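Appendix B, Record 12. Input sequence as logged:
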Amino acid sequence: MKPSKEVVRRRDYTVQEIPFSEAAALIRAHHYARGCANTATAAHGLVRKADGVLVGAALWMPPTRVCAESVDREEWRRVLALSRLAIAPGEPQNAASLLIGGSVRLLRRSGRWAALVTFADESQGHTGGIYRATNWTHVGRTAPEPRWVDADGRQVARKATHSRTAAEMRALGYRVDGRYRKEKFVLHLAA
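Logged structural output:
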């Protein structure tokens, strides 16, 4: 859902570490995938200062080794992926930018991570404008992959507990609703 036309005022929000359970609940409610992994390396929230309400969440986790090495071959263990980002409907324009910026600052301060990676899902009409606006570098597009959905049209991960074959996905009642690419973005954290 698109944010309102009102522009976010940084002084009205804070970005902070939050419990995974709170981030996951907000993501289940407001992210198009309606779900996330069962764990995360970092969970950050956008909180309105006026009432203390959590209005945005970002979940970070290590990417696959292949993805991490494509970002930084030598320090691939120090690459972290933004796996989910969601903002509650009705929040001001640029709220997602504020959350991403604050989340990146928290990760940078930790000193643990060399680089970050994320993807914009073309199946949702996402082009990565939010990442460009927050100074990430566009590094290309993935090969098209099938988007699996359940009977209700909800997206289902093929790699949820293990990589399932197409036959396993069909046996579970899922179907492909198209093949889509993702735009890949990288942000190096070195000073």
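The first strand starts at residue 13 and ends at 17.
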